[in-house]
Amino acid sequence: MAVTGIPLSWVVRQCAGAVGKGLSLDKLLEAALIHREHGDDRDCISPSQLGLLCASIVYNTSDEAHALSARPIDLGLGSLAYRVLFGSTTLQPGIDAMIRLYDLSNRTITLKLFVNRDVAFLALKCSDDTPGAMLLEDCHLGHFFIGISHFLGRPLPALYVVTRDPEHVNLSNMHWSTRVPVEFGCNSGIAFPRALLGASRQMNLEEDSRWGAVQRWLDFAEPDPALEISPLANIKLLKAGPSGNTASVGDGAPMAGFRSARQQIIVDAAIRILTNTRDSVESIAAQLGYSEARSFRRFMKGATGRTPDQIRSGFGIPVRNLLVHERYRRILAQIPG
Questions:
Q1: What pLDDT is stored for residue 247 in this prediction?
Q2: How many CA atoms lie within 13 A of 301 on its CB side?
Q3: Where are the domains of the chain?
Q4: What is the largest CA-CA distance in the chain?
């Protein structure tokens, strides 16, 4: 059975460390475009929204441990792990290089690779023995699954996932990010066929490898139910002007001045209108304050890499998820690496 939604209670658990550091739960959920209609587990989100939430927590806490561990992890370690993995020509040396990197660079997450006759098991453990540590292990397990999948040029054909968390949302079901069965055990990790350790790198080294890895995973992990993207919102901020020298926008990330904040609001608003209405590009340009549709088209191409027509058609991405993906890309771009 495929995972079709992640319940709100699991989402709130993911935010616990950041909220304990003083961040607003409402702003964290808003950053991931999560809307609480009922306020309980009838509200479910998609894997892309949970991934976006995790990226937002990392960015806003400056901690790749998601503020879930007593020991933080410096920003950039996850990206560096991808670099050493992608720099290898076959998978096992890449995994071995990641293990050495984590051994040398942090005291929070430990990686180990166990191999028997047929199965390889990438184990990870947080130094804290707390519920937050177990959540952190799950987050990093997803991170390594995404990286290895990108290295292989296809989703890692995992066999199963093991968690130490007795309250894991997918226990005895399919894991939200890997789509394989979840088992309870003493070591968190992911099992896959041993033969893959000799697999050659299939990714394109010329592309933005971090975002490319996430895009590949989003195509794999996205569920069937459509995301509900609200109608045009925040457009009134375009006319309000900044307060002070900086402005803060929907995801809570500080932007360098009103111009940057205004650009982000326009992009969000434009994507919402393009994907929720059949208004002409000329009409949308006028709504957003452009006197010429040509200038609006040029702006959207520069800001998103897509023309308004490509955004409306989905351009290879399900239309319902385009706004989530675009915000995900922007947050990743602000994390070192």
A1: 36
A2: 8
A3: 6-221, 237-334
A4: 67
Residue 260, pLDDT score = 58
Strands 182-184 and 247-248: unpaired
Angle at 183 between CA 182 and CA 185, to 5 degrees: 140
Could you please report the per-residue DSSP string of 200-239? BP-S-TTS-HHHHHHHHHHHHH--SSPP---SS-STTHHH
Can you tell me the distance from the alpha carbon of 332 to that of 261, in angstroms, rounded to the nearest whole number?
17
pLDDT (mean) for 186-194: 96
Our separate counts of H helices and E strands in the chain read 13, 9
pLDDT of 154 higher than 90: yes
Residues 6+ apart with CB under 8 A from 148: 85, 91, 95, 156
Using one digit for the tens of pLDDT, what is the confidence trace for 194-250? 999 999 999 887 766 888 899 889 888 874 433 333 334 444 444 444 433 333 334
Among 107-121, 174-188, 193-207, whose mean pLDDT is lowest?
Answer: 193-207
DSSP label at residue 240: H
With contact defined as beta carbons under 8 Å apart, do 33 and 234 qualify?
no
Whether the model pTM is above 0.90? no
* Residue 203 tokens, joined: 């990714």
75, 181, 208 from 212: Cα distances, Å: 19, 26, 6
- Quickly state the pLDDT bin for 251 (edges 50, 70, 90): very low
Q: Is the dihedral of CA 224, 148, 150, 62 positive or negative?
A: positive
Q: What does the DSSP 8-state code read for residue 142?
A: H
Q: By the 8 A CB rule, do 71 and 247 touch? A: no
How far apart are alpha carbons 82 and 80 in whole angstroms? Answer: 5
Cα–Cα distance between 191 and 122 in angstroms, integer? 6
Report which residue type is found at 271: I
What is 237-334's CATH topology? Arc Repressor Mutant, subunit A (1.10.10)
Which backbone phi and psi does 76 adopt, to 5 degrees? Answer: 105, -15
Token pair, residue 168, equals 């894991």
Over its C-alpha atoms, the chain yields an Rg (Å, rounded) of 20
**Residue 35: Cβ within 10 Å count:** 14
